Amino acid sequence: MREVEDSYILDLIRKTESRNYGFDLLIRKYQEPVYRLVRRIVITHEDADDVVQNCFIQVWKYIDTFRNDSGIFTWIYRIAVNEALRWITKNRLKQMVSFSTVERKLEATLTSDPFFTGSNIERKLHKALLRLPFKQRLIFQMKYFDAMKYEEISGILGTTVGALKASYHHAVKKIEQFLLSH
């Protein structure tokens, strides 16, 4: 689905008669990478589905405000990250617990998730990721799993490339330390 150009999709969305078709193409093109990003943040399949759905509702709602300052991919990822953060905050407030408690619950969920098909090494890596500060985790995931360039991540998170490189380096060191000690 990546072969369809974003500019073509956006042209379709901007025309009333092809808006729905264009949006359908947009979803088909970006649903899977957005799901992978969100799933690594919220851990469970069901929660990731809900967050992705909310993400694309926001995209539909605000697509007319998209100004092409960044790529559509960057814009959608920014919305997905914000929706995932909103989900985490809402869950934390609903249960009146700290972020560290939420992360421990996410780790327990990872262990029992029937949709997680990774090996023990992958499970260890995800446990190590859950111990990282949220922004470091997100930067590591985007760079390592999604093979995104620092410039793309910078556009999504609004952080300088230098700061991203430093965060990624710190994340890698912490993950290495966790994997060696567990």
Strand portion: under 5%
Total helices: the number is 9
The name of the CATH topology of the largest domain is Rna Polymerase Sigma Factor, Chain: A
- In whole angstroms, the N-to-C terminal distance is 40 Å
By CATH, the architecture of the largest domain is named Orthogonal Bundle
What sort of overall outline do the alpha carbons produce when their principal axes are compared?
elongated
Note the run of SSEs as H and E: HHHHHHHHH
In CATH terms, the superfamily of the largest domain is RNA polymerase sigma factor, region 2, helix turn helix motif
The Rg value, from CA coordinates, equals 17 Å
Kindly describe this structure.
The chain has 182 residues and is mainly α. It folds into 2 domains: 1-117, Rna Polymerase Sigma Factor, Chain: A (Orthogonal Bundle), CATH 1.10.1740.10; 119-182, Winged helix-like DNA-binding domain superfamily/Winged helix DNA-binding domain (Arc Repressor Mutant, subunit A). The protein is 77% helix and 0% strand. It has helices at residues 6-14, 19-42, 45-62, 72-95, 99-112, 120-130, 134-145, 150-157, 161-181. α7 (134-145) packs across α9 (161-181). The longest helix is centred in the N-terminal third of the chain and has 24 residues, at 19-42. The chain starts with 5 loop residues before the first helix and ends with a helix.
